């Protein structure tokens, strides 16, 4: 008597806000993926109060997608957690930013890397590349210390990471069982890096899959706290906002969890640097983003 095994679920977790065509293009690239035998895909998308008809357009073109409704205040963490809770239990959770267009065989590659890993408690990250600039945008992160972080350049080989950006990340259920889900102390920034750092502390491996598994645009500096065209007041507001460079409460949660002592000093440094930038009239930049690779190999 042959016992048929149920396919393993891969629940894709997405959140979106007012970029309908971008979201649809991501879902189209997902629909074109070849899923290996023994696996099946489920998609959970949080539409966080979009006013451009994103949710309705997704329901029409992709009726199998589970569209969840947010109120516009969930941001990436809240939207992802709404999807995560709806998807539970699942064998795997795939974090997927809605501005990513997956390359052919991206999911196959993620699963191949996972299956070849010696540790079942392994997460696999996929790198993305800006299609116009030809530069790596996101993927695995390498840390010289708790705050000195650089984006890793993907190669033809699997690489070990210290953490990862959350654009394309495969998370098996055993990792969720070990360290839980995203920390809701964060709304948008820090949560993916924090999850990776918690994972490494708990003995979870993080692997960067070979080559780029998707494309997305580099985040511009325009209309951020780094934009010299904005007034000092506008730049301060951008810095402290939910998607800002250093929202105080969220930055403190990250410092408290990962920085050495004296923690208060590490917490206040970005604000002191920004104060010095302000005194210089915005003509110098003392703060920095995560270091990115210079070119694609």
Q: Ends: how far apart?
A: 51 Å
Estimated helix fraction: 25-40%
Counted by DSSP, the helix tally is 9
What is the CATH level 1 assignment?
Alpha Beta
Counting DSSP E segments of at least 2 residues, the number of strands comes to 13
Integer-rounded radius of gyration = 19 Å
CA-based shape: globular
| Order of helical and strand elements | EHEHEHEEHEEEEEEEHHEHHH
Q: What structural class do helix, strand and pairing data support?
A: alpha/beta
Structural write-up:
By secondary structure, the protein is α/β, with parallel strands linked by helices. It has one domain: Spore Coat Polysaccharide Biosynthesis Protein SpsA, Chain A. Strands 1, 2, 3, 4, 5, 6, 7, 10, 12 and 13 form a ten-stranded mixed beta sheet that branches. Strands 9-8-11 form a three-stranded antiparallel beta sheet.
Structure characteristics:
single chain; 297 residues; alpha/beta; Spore Coat Polysaccharide Biosynthesis Protein SpsA, Chain A; 10-stranded mixed β-sheet; 9 helices; globular
